[in-house]
């Protein structure tokens, strides 16, 4: 519609034809570079080696679907499980 076109043309004009602002200085330095590098490496690693993770997840899902008692047994062996506490009724 004409109203939408006028609105977006006004936004575009403000971006490209507006008065030039004073130069800004970027801040970040070493901590920013390190954190971006670590996150990027983790992302690439998960992308490259995703097949074993997906296979383990499928295997775990199959165990839960076909043998729920085995899944319950494994859950009680998990770290942080407190003996004697029931999760039923939650």
Give structural attributes:
90 residues, 0% strand, 69% helix, elongated, mainly alpha
Would you list the SSEs in sequence order as H and E?
HHHH
How many beta strands in the DSSP annotation? 0
Backbone structural class: mainly alpha
What would you report as the Rg, rounded to the nearest angstrom?
27 Å
Q: So how many helices?
A: 4
Q: Strand portion, in percent?
A: under 5%
Mean pLDDT: 80
Low-confidence stretches: none
Shape: elongated
What distance lies between the first and last C-alpha atoms, to the nearest angstrom?
52 Å
Largest sheet features:
none
How does this model look, in words?
With 90 residues, the chain is mainly α. The protein is elongated, with a radius of gyration of 27 Å. The protein has helices at residues 2-17, 29-48, 50-66, 68-76. The model has no long low-confidence stretch (mean pLDDT 80). α3 packs across α4 (68-76).
What does this entry show, briefly?
This protein is mostly helical and 90 residues long.
